[in-house]
Amino acid sequence: MPKIIISPSILSADFANLELDIKRVEQAGADWLHVDVMDGHFVPNITIGVPVVKSIKKAAKIPLDVHLMIENPEKYIKSFADAGADILTFHYEAANDVKAVVSLIKAFGVKAGMSIKPMTPPEKVLEFLPLLDLILVMTVEPGFGGQSFMYDCAEKIPVIRKHAHPELIIQVDGGINSETAKICTDFGANSLVAGNYIYNSDDIQKAVQSLR
Ligand code: DX5
Ligand code: ZN
Question: Which domains are seen in the chain, by residue range?
Fold first, then answer.
């Protein structure tokens, strides 16, 4: 298993000082930058869209891991790929045709990820694992940073790892701190998203290192 990929969520950053907050996590040793896109329909919150992702791309040196919490993801794949996403993760629950969305993402030379919400059983997505570069297991209901980790969700990780191809990245997102990160990596996750834990810590470098 490769090293653990740490992807700080800029949802907990200061949006008025985003460039500085991106540099802070880069200097702390983050591998990717997690960008949460919410449309106010698939989730009850609105965050950022294509123009902001484009600006983030200019400011960031590390890959952009874009988490689309939006309905009809197929409509926006091209725009986010053009904006500079390196990984595009859509939601299983939002896709009308999973295979079509994955093909579209790959057609733009972007890594394809798919995410499942807490109520979605892993069995629903096993057939799609061979197509994916990444599967994101949500460990909170998507929509907001700073929520508590749902332990039951972590139990999906070994089920997915058992059926995964060797290169599949299993990512977790929601309520990740040094304690919940260990639970997830012990279960077979190899990418951790953390917003609140990293950005609200006194020592960002220590926080990133403590997740590894
Ligand atoms: C929640 C987002 C997460 C969120 C994680 O819907 O997908 O990426 O920012 O935040 P924390 O780590 O604070 O739970
Ligand atoms: Zn996210």
Answer: 5-211 (3.20.20.70)
